[in-house]
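User: Please predict structures.

Assistant: First:
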Amino acid sequence: PARRIDIGFKGGQVLPCRVNQEAWDGLRKALEDSSSERWHELETADSQVAIDLAQVVYVRLDTEDQKVGF
């Protein structure tokens, strides 16, 4: 199942994405690894996004249960 994340960048822009667990783990690993490449390819539910890791300020993982309807 896809998980919702928000990626915050310097300057205040926020990129909302839906990613699977493998993509989430890869992004976290890239952000934590100081020797990783500057650019990270993130596979989302509907696209592929190239992220400049040097510009990322935060990543928020939505942990609330997904609900349908009201």
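Second:
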Amino acid sequence: MISGILNIKKEPGFTSHDVVAKLRGIVHQKKIGHTGTLDPDATGVLPVCLGKATKLCDIIGDWDKTYEAVLLLGRETDTEDTSGQTLKEREVAVTEEEIRDIILSFQGSYDQIPPMYSALKVNGKKLYELAREGKEVERAPRQVRIYDIEILKIALPRVRMRVSCSKGTYIRTLCHDIGAKLRCGGCMEELLRTKVSCFRIEDSHPLEEIQRYVQNGALDKVLIPIDAMFSEQKKIVLEKKEARLAYNGNDFTVKAGTDSIEWQAQEEVRVYDEEQRFIGMYYYDGEKKCFRIRKMFLSQEERKG
């Protein structure tokens, strides 16, 4: 089984699920998962996890993201982007200075109401399914954080901007909210995701390129190892006795080579055995003075081997 992360460059017209389905056919493996949906018309970085790395899907999905978006002022739609039905059109009678002031005012935390056309569930049903039935339900606002907005170009009625934000932020909704605050309406015309934590657009690969790597037996050139996601954490290599404990997810203490280290409570570490196989992520329990399992990545077959 292939395990690792691929930095996929999603192309327009594909859903995130489409990308996963196509990858399953390319690598001939079922155990694959994506790390967070991108709308079909959106493009850019989509980290995809294979094999044991699927345990990282939720973790990577929680990481901060950066987008380049085009805001179209003067138009409101039911989907909050240009793929939807137009609800209202207005004249864009605002100055560039007003636009800059309003856009930059969204930096920081703000309460965002998720769009009806989204994959969020209410009473077990996805919002976009309800929206397609012509139903609208009340959605509780969620606090999101806009770390930075850089206005790249203003050519009214369009504004191109770069947005760095927290998980759960809908850029479509941000465009809608900016338009509402400017009192002329707005929706998203284009969206490119340029970064998900350490995954960058310049390092991403379209599906056809991944297929060529597979055909040439060179997938390892673009497959990112699981432990690379935790490269900033300290590394512990266990001797056989401690490693046997770790294989089963049990607590362990370490002595040789680490007794001079002052471990911090809840500090996470990468744990390996003597063969340099990545066992998983552990954290230090300050009260019990031992390391406890956070996430296991070594498979049962590897543990037996």
